[in-house]
């Protein structure tokens, strides 16, 4: 067991991040390099890491960060491409045709459409897609980021077509002969079948706790960005929030239970969006009043960055042509790039020949980094960034862009991607130094020491905190998948040690990995980058602690009830 001093040393980088970003409102571009230096100091003085391992771990983190930056670059490029063509104005009018009410738009765009994008692409793309759409509709950029991060919680557990559970748990458990033997002898499942069961339990948590997710997004908007600064306006759309939740939750849970972890988010969102839009068009669940933000002139400066809300083409939906005249862009044409994006993202992950080709080509690999055995790669063609860029190039012809518009879109993209580079590189570098501290010295890493300290402190009530361990991993790594890789085996071991159902505890881990994305520095920086508001990470994280606390508390209570009272006989 680690000593108290070791626990404090391991905690130091996280304390640095919390104090600098949440306490002093430092931007991630300043806070993360400091946290990286603190992690290095912890690695050297607490774990005896040498220069070789620190450098290799940092390089490994930089490679992972580059994967994220590739995705962010593609998302920003598509955003500015559509901004140049005026498509965002047309899209805005399309949603206005359903409802001009900002509360209704949050339910449709953030909860339902965001969940669909998460199920198709993962990698933090929902905020990259939905955030700019909200800004195009006239939302304050800070409000757009805050609500965009909250809305797709239920889909994050299954990520991009099941990746977090398939890679994070199934592949991890399959590599352990001890776990594989226990599962196959004590249950009727293979490892894949058992992980599907874990996914069903995770979906069960989400269906119960997630009943408030659509409402939370609306309530945070009205409370922190409304003129009244109250949740009272959100109560008017509570029936709509509950209907949208039910329309999503039922097919979502049934898909998880009977089809496995690949498509719950996709199918739940598709059915939910179809049912909710249809109900609204028929006149059901529409609020009696109309809610909007106060005049932009009254907004605090930190609400708006480099991109002005509604900063696209003319309000009548006209877009410039090569000849300098204007023509009306049909709604289908404005939406076509996003529709094609979804098709491409799903196709590249579901159609095996395409997926295999992309994963085996265009891959930049660094094997045995500095002789440490660490290996990492960048799948340039398979990562969603390639899909974003591909659709951006198609849009040039589809929307008949001229050379000046294309150059402007690419120029603005490079300008906007510059800010998050430093933050992302050092954020992931910090995580890797902490993660590889154990491999470098043949001991438990800083992350494992912190998790074990949590388990030892909690004892028999550990299930109450199981989801927080998952959230901790996602907060550090910015990925539900990485959280599952880091902590699923640990959660299995703790559950086995204290005699609680392993399947139920691991379901809580899968949920925790989702809620940790709310405050993951990577995701927050990426979401702020695409709306031109890098530097407000601390404010966003402080607000996102509200839904995180709600979700973690109720998931923890359910985990205790399931483990000791309702389903103690589950494996």
TrEMBL record:
- Indicate whether Transport appears among the record's keywords: yes
* Listed transmembrane segments: 7-26, 32-49, 61-82, 106-135, 142-167, 203-222, 234-254, 266-284, 338-358, 378-396, 417-435, 455-477, 548-567
Protein's UniProt keywords contain Transmembrane: yes
Q: Which domain of life is it from?
A: Archaea
Locations listed in the record: Cell membrane
Which UniProt keywords are listed? Cell membrane, Membrane, Plasmid, Transmembrane, Transmembrane helix, Transport
Q: Which GO terms describe its cellular component?
A: plasma membrane
Name used for this protein in its record: L-lactate permease
Membrane topology of the entry: Multi-pass membrane protein
Q: Name one GO molecular function term.
A: lactate transmembrane transporter activity
